[in-house]
Design a protein that fits this description.
This is Alpha-1,4 glucan phosphorylase. With about 850 residues, the protein is an alpha/beta fold. The protein is about 50% helix and about 15% strand. The structure holds N-(acetylcarbamoyl)-beta-D-glucopyranosylamine. N-(acetylcarbamoyl)-beta-D-glucopyranosylamine binds next to helix 7.
Length: about 850
Amino acid sequence: PAHHPLNATHPLALAPVTGPASSVDGFVRQFLRNLNYERGVPLSASTPNDRYFAFAMTVRDYLMARWLEDLRRQRVVQAKGVCYLSAEYLLGRQLDNNLLASGLTEIATEAMVACGIDIEELRAQEVEPGLGNGGLGRLAACFIDSLATMGVPNIGYGIRYEYGIFRQTFVDGQQVEQPDAWLTLGSPWEFPHPEAARRISFGGHTETYDDAGVTRSRWVPGWDVLAVPYNYMVPGYLNGRVNTLRLWSAKATDSFDLRVFNSGDYEEAVRAQTFAENISKVLYPEDSTPQGKELRLQQQYFFVAASIGDFLEHTLPADFDIHKLPDRVIFQLNDTHPVIGVPELMRVLVDERKLEWDAAWAITQQCFAYTCHTLLPEALEVWSVDLLGRLLPRHLEIIYRINEEFLEAVRERYGDDEMRIRNMSIIGEFPERSVRMAYLATVAGAKVNGVAELHSQLLRDKVLPDFNDFFPGKFTNVTNGITPRRFVRLANPGLSGLITEAIGTGWLTDLERLRELEAYAEDPQFRQAFAEVKAANKRRLGDVLRARDGLEISDGHMLDVMVKRLHEYKRQMLKLLHVVTQYGSIVSGRVAASDVLPRTVIFGAKAAPGYAMAKRIIHLINAVGEVVNTDPRVEGRLKVLFPPNYNVTLAERLIPAADLSEQISLAGKEASGTGNMKFALNGALTIGTDDGANVEIRQLVGDDNFFLFGMSEPEVEALWARGYKPADFYQGDENLRRAMDLIASGAFSGGDRSVFEPIVSNLLYDDRFMVLADYSSYVAAQERVDAAYVDQDAWTRSAILNVARSGFFSSDRSMRDYIERIWHTPPLL
Ligand code: AZC
């Protein structure tokens, strides 16, 4: 048969791809077209899901020309780009974001009105892709938004989990996890490319062979799976740019299919297929604590090998000189999850591309950079040599050689300092032989960064001091940020309108311009308008919580919000002890209910399913809420609400309504926090410790506009060194004793003293995160909060100053820092 070369120069193929007409009519026409031709239904017989799909596809159609142009440009202009490697992307709903980015919100809204369709019903149809646990996954989502908005070439690589973070429900106050089947109705935002699937191998053994007189190693794998890419648009904000997020889904290879075919044992054969597809089945619901499960390592290698292979073979031109790789790409490692990519790139360069080891290592060291997101030593990922060697034998060999040469260099520098060598070895010996992934990342990475000033300093001084000594200049800081498009413009349209009225447009992509609001803090009319926006946001939240969970927030209450993963180090217990203290004072008659400042405390938090203490704390919060909310003596002046299943969608409603932001981790434990930034930017005042990015928030907004409490990190260290005895604090503080005793008495468990006993005794006899030591300082700070809130006008002034001075926390700024200090990937104009 005649061979027809692809005629990409056909005049019609060369014509620019144009989207539908930018008018209400144009939108309606395309919407109906999608409904009819893509969904195969007439409007009259369509379901809400049909209409949502057709609507989303129409938005896509408007973005398509830009996406194709960016993909074309990426190939033609061989500019350096960022491959962001992340096991998590906590995206949140896409619809409004994509409408905003494409400037279509008004046209689309009018188009739906014209069709008699309720756009709110369409919005409600979208299930948020919860492909992440918390801060780390949400950060990745903010970063790719900023890169697209700045026009920086970027591919986000990750895993298309079939089940994202679990849906949390409460049964008798206790957390029950339900699978998050977000794909049941399909997703209109993804573009599957099964034809571009990549084969990813595992297991087997290694062998050496003679390659024209050179002895080389090679990997003879034992089994493989297919990695099928799904592409998602990442549109920049009103700049005509669309980057790509590429998530991999696992599929059985035909060898599995063959086994099904050949095997007499049909059930066993199908089981084998399921085994392969399990790899991308579910997101591990652990946040900041690695699990060391084999499937997890499979996931990590699966997506990283697919991504690196995809970039080298698909994005780079066929004749690319691999020695120039560092001019074309930086692979950013989002924590240690993708660090297996280091030996993978070495394997590709040495075994497949036949480079000399030293040349390959020089390239690799320029192509990776590593971000650390934690300070908890137990959160640093390690893989047992046994497991790693079984799953990825060639990679283990490569890691051994990297370590050997690294330790050789350490010896050269410091002599035979065995202690130091043991401490710096990528292979740890206790409690079992294992690979320390953070060390591997640090040795391989061109740069290593922490995520807030304090965190980066502690990384250098406490977590990896030997490495900082050995690699001067390698460690740097990039303080986290959040995207103002989603967390100000979309989440808080009222405030956004007010800001634009005051300082004009442009601030959404140049957030430091919020500084211009400082003057408005002194304008009584502006303060009034600002307070009205906050009040409206509270009513809107009230509507959401009523409809979603049947919860009521009372008029005139201060909204005191603590939303984040449930972790002992974040200290939800400290907040709860304050609630119990207030409750105890009222019911014992020490304080008249009418003298208590009306407050509604809102918690939102998921606990890792295997984290027993965290789940017990959830149970206690619910139990306290149950009692406090129904006790008539409280006269409704204190309420505790705990809407289940805190997620991005709920955060977007909660944060703009908050008065007080709780950021109360033990100093030296929270790497950065990003919720803290979202609250400040939405005009909540922070009560917080000197921890993570709180430090920078306080420096920027000023001491007068921030409620600082608790020990500083050096004070924490000093107390540990002296010997911390929580019981002494219990004995020494009457309020604390009363609160603890009230919990221990069974007051929140129907008289049963055993239910919450483990929490009480943990605090009294262990208290790793020094809740009791910081209690009195916290309660005193809350009294300052009460006093400040009484003067509503002064409070509003502080809130405005929080907004005005938090522009630094835009993720656009974080991206500029990464670009200047680490990536060197300027925007493509
Ligand atoms: C989190 C940190 O706990 C949080 O302080 C930080 O703001 C966030 O990363 C983004 O940098 N770390 C994690 O979520 N870590 C893991 C392994 O999940």
